[in-house]
Amino acid sequence: MRGAALIAAGVLLTAGCSEVEAPPVDPTALADAVQLDAVMTHLTELERIAGENDGNRSLGTPGYDASVDYVAGALRDAGFDVQTPEFDTTLFAVENEQLTVDGEPMGVSALGMSPSTGPEGLTARVVRIAPDDTPGCEATDYDGIDATGAVVIVDRGVCTFAVKEQVAAERGAAALLVANNEDGPLTAAGLGAESTPRIPVGGVAGADAERLFAATTVTVTLQTRTEDRKSRNVIAQTRTGSTDDVVVVGAHLDSVPEGPGINDNGTGVAAVLETALQLGSEPGVTNAVRFAFWGAEEVGLVGSTRYVESLSDEERLDIALYLNFDMLGSPNAGYLVFDGDDSDAVGEGPGPEGSAGIERTFAQFFDERGIEVGGTDFDGRSDYGPFVAFGIPAGGVFTGADDVKTPEQAGLWGGTADQPFDPNYHTPEDTLAGIDRDAFAAAAAAVAYGTAVYANSIDGPDGVPAGDQRAEVRAEFTE
């Protein structure tokens, strides 16, 4: 379906040729126009869709198809040229998860795309990889350790689960268990849809790690299966504005199978959709705005990855920047913006050139409303990932997922310290009842503000590289 995505992109890239007649868009006015009642109406509709479709809106389900129809229909009614390009993906399902440690059961969750142990499971000795600066991320972490045929246990963190699996498999491990480095079990994690794992991989709670380390043998059963599926993105672009400097604004549309996905990511969908409706299909903007609602994010950012990869080099260079909005109404909310300049010195380093300016734009928006923001890392867990991979500057707003709110953050923003930002993350309880409406209202307004700022101009101290600079600076970032 690569061709379908490319054709859809080509249609949209030719759409911004009409003469601009509408008055210029004021960022503050657009932010004020995105009202809480309107975005809550969209959320209510998404919850209704989930309720009528087995409680979710996940990949390959009628609930997801109905979500596509709702978003695409609203955009078409507003005059947008809407495309729903189809792409291939893989559905992952778990049939059985069991872990026995010295005859006693322990909780375990199969990581997405994990190979199956088969129904009989496997029994093997336990090997621990020390929790150093690169826990299970490098071959040297296994120096002096015979992992052949063993169940290897590593700590979460530093590198992706896929890298940990690859290293363990290369050292001959029979299976891999990843111990959470935060409170609670390691659930709803995955190896990525594009990964090719060779051994079963499960996640366990960090509190259980010591018991595992002391065990002689364990029996692990991760019975999984995969199915080829098709899914769709929703893409809509303004009919005005330069198509040489497109501002892409995105949110993932799918939920996990476990729940309706109202915070994750109905909130992002509702805010981006309402921003599009208030902006209109023919606004007075300098740069075209492309609104994107991604499919199959929850199984490895598949929809956004397929889309970005389907574009030619020239079409990617026509994208000035990408704004991502995922989880905007967390019950124990924080006010986080993506750390474009790595000023927090945490995790993956700075984003592509221009990302620092995007961070400042959103920080300024919140500062003017008396809200101090924190940084959040480009850790690859949402749809900015494939854009950043091609050196496209990115940014956005986030109110937190399964990370734990620190006492300092609770002092800054309120809420409960030492509890997750979203205790309902990837559960059936991710419903309207859990939405922090104050945080959601502020974040939704920020979506509109940031969109308007860059639709008007990509220049200035908070701008992004111009078209004639992009190829060089993006090549430097991706080297």
Give your account of this protein's structure.
By secondary structure, this protein is an alpha/beta fold. It folds into 2 domains: 2-85 and 233-478, Zn peptidases (Aminopeptidase), CATH 3.40.630; 91-227, 3-Layer(bba) Sandwich (Glucose Oxidase, domain 1), CATH 3.50.30.30. It has helices at 2-13, 27-33, 36-51, 62-77, 161-170, 209-214, 262-279, 302-310, 313-317, 355-367, 384-389, 407-413, 437-456, 467-478; strands at 81-83, 86-101, 104-106, 109-110, 122-128, 151-155, 175-179, 201-204, 217-232, 234-237, 242-252, 287-294, 319-325, 336-338, 374-376, 394-398. The strands form 2 sheets. It has an 8-stranded mixed beta sheet, with helices on both faces. Strand 2 (86-101) and strand 3 (104-106) form a beta hairpin. The chain is globular, with a radius of gyration of 22 Å.
